[in-house]
Specification:
The chain is built from nine helices and six strands. Helix 5 runs antiparallel to helix 6 and helix 5 runs parallel beside helix 7. Strand 4 and strand 5 form a beta hairpin. It is α+β, with helices and mostly antiparallel strands. Helix content is 47%, strand content 10%. Strands 1-5-4-2 form a four-stranded mixed sheet. Strands 3-6 form a two-stranded antiparallel sheet.
Length: 239
């Protein structure tokens, strides 16, 4: 298995995905899949961490943070031909304090990234979308009355951001554009959708033109978490 470089670790850190052992583990991705956790504990736990005014806002906040991990999957794939391929029990979550506010961050072993061969690239992207996105969307919808559009938009905000970075780098732009075209294709979404949800979000526009623009169709409810305001993508901010 590949060892992560300092640059890779720093990029993961910048998206709140840490490769050190957490001081504690509040829960794992495996636990997020558990029905008892979804129904009895998860939303209340996130409300306690964030002081959100509603369960929906608390769960939306979680999906925004988890979306950083999803975005790093696509970044690492385009930049290094690597993805995180650990088990769900090995992706761990803990509370952390940022800018005076409590939130959630993720921990993953550096030994759980692996190289991706060209012939499996589309299948790998499809698996990420199905297992690490679609299934999580279904899990989070069991916790409270949250629209799937809110959760997907929370993922896409970060994915657009990382592709904007990748396409701005001459050494990575060609590979990133090829991966972006796969993500915009219908085929890679076919396990659970008849269309590319990502293309529906971006309408095929260049990622750099979408960063911090109000292109969301849904509000992420960050304004309902004390200390936060509307995000730069909020449809409520349109003129």
């Amino acid at each position: 298995m590949p060892a992560l470089t300092i640059d890779q670790v720093l990029m993961l850190d910048s998206y709140n995905v840490y490769t050190t052992m957490p001081a504690r583990t509040l829960f794992t991705l495996e636990r997020v899949h558990k029905e008892f956790f979804q129904e009895d504990e998860f939303a209340d736990l996130m409300m306690g961490i964030t002081n959100a005014r509603s369960k929906t806002a608390a769960i939306s906040h979680f999906s925004k943070r988890y979306g950083q991990f999803v975005a790093m999957q696509f970044y690492m794939l385009s930049a290094y031909d690597e993805i995180w391929d650990g088990s769900d029990r090995d992706l761990q979550f803990d509370a952390t304090k940022e800018n005076g506010l409590y939130t959630i961050c993720m921990f993953a072993s550096p030994n759980d990234w692996r190289y991706v061969e060209d012939l499996e690239r589309e299948h790998v992207m499809s698996t990420i979308l199905y297992k690490q996105c679609y299934q999580i969307v279904q899990d989070l919808r069991n916790t409270t009355s949250i629209s799937p559009r809110v959760i997907w938009d929370n993922f896409f905000v970060h994915i657009v951001n990382v592709y904007a970075k990748l396409l701005d780098d001459p050494q990575l732009a060609d590979r990133a554009m090829a991966d972006l075209e796969i993500l915009e294709s219908t085929e890679v979404w076919s396990r659970f959708s008849e269309k590319s949800l990502f293309y529906e979000y971006t309408k095929g526009r260049a990622p750099a033109s979408l960063v911090n623009q109000p292109i969301r169709r849904s509000c992420c409810l960050s304004k309902d978490i004390p200390g936060l305001g509307a995000c730069g993508y909020c449809p409520l901010e349109r003129d």
